[in-house]
Amino acid sequence: RREPLALVNLKKKNEETGEEELASRLDHCKAKATRHIFLIRHSQYNLDGRADKDRTLTPLGREQAELTGHRLASLGLKFDQIIHSSMTRATETTEIISKHLPGVKKISTDLLREGAPIEPDPPVSHWKPEAVQYYEDGARIEAAFRNFIHRADAKQEEDSYEIFVCHANVIRYIVCRALQFPPEGWLRMSLNNGSITHLVIRPNGRVALRTLGDTGFMPPDKITRT
């Protein structure tokens, strides 16, 4: 719904000026800036925790978050914001990363919480959530995609750089949707803890994937995929 034609009320077109006025109105609605989306998977966490509040980062997970934060800071970009999942492991990862990016505002959202986005194809035998989970989580994760992954607003003058700290399932689903790949293939991708996935959204709405699950900035003995 950010295509210029979708933002112009064609019924109000002036009959006298016709196409000339329409072209002017369409131009006014066109995006001018590029959005850079950095999707960060949370670091390693305590898998034995029964409740979300108990699934805190492990000591290695905290090291991973420090490495990710240092990597993002080293890019020399002016980040606009960090939006993160409200789950404990994502929140803790964000707190560590944000120390390397002072002054960048943080926003928590339930939309980016982990879940089952859509039944994978081909199916896997080791992970079979109840069908209702796909309906509940899938609608929410799709809402996250529509809410956050889109071309820049027409009022945005400069390119933006935004960080999203969330979860593997969410990131994989978003990548499939953003690239117009069948979303059922999301489980064919694998993401390390603390990895960086970089999407670029051009003013015309075209999306490119710069990096997927990059952890080349981590020593091999620090890399995990739990």
UniProtKB/TrEMBL annotation:
Compartments (UniProt record): Mitochondrion outer membrane
User: What does the entry list under GO cellular component?
Assistant: mitochondrial outer membrane
Q: Which family does it belong to?
A: Belongs to the phosphoglycerate mutase family. BPG-dependent PGAM subfamily.
Q: What is its EC number?
A: 3.1.3.16
InterPro entries this protein is in? Answer: His_Pase_superF_clade-1, His_PPase_superfam, Mito_Ser/Thr_phosphatase
Which reactions appear under catalytic activity for this entry? Answer: O-phospho-L-seryl-[protein] + H2O = L-seryl-[protein] + phosphate; O-phospho-L-threonyl-[protein] + H2O = L-threonyl-[protein] + phosphate
Organism equals Jacana jacana
Q: Does the keyword Hydrolase apply?
A: yes
* CDD domains linked to this entry: HP_PGM_like
Q: Does the keyword tRNA processing apply?
A: no
What terms describe the molecular function in GO for this protein? protein serine/threonine phosphatase activity
Single GO BP term = programmed cell death
Query: This chain belongs to which protein, by name?
Result: Serine/threonine-protein phosphatase PGAM5, mitochondrial
Q: Which PANTHER family match?
A: PHOSPHOGLYCERATE MUTASE-RELATED, SERINE_THREONINE-PROTEIN PHOSPHATASE PGAM5, MITOCHONDRIAL
Give the UniProt keywords, A-Z. Hydrolase, Membrane, Mitochondrion, Mitochondrion outer membrane, Necrosis
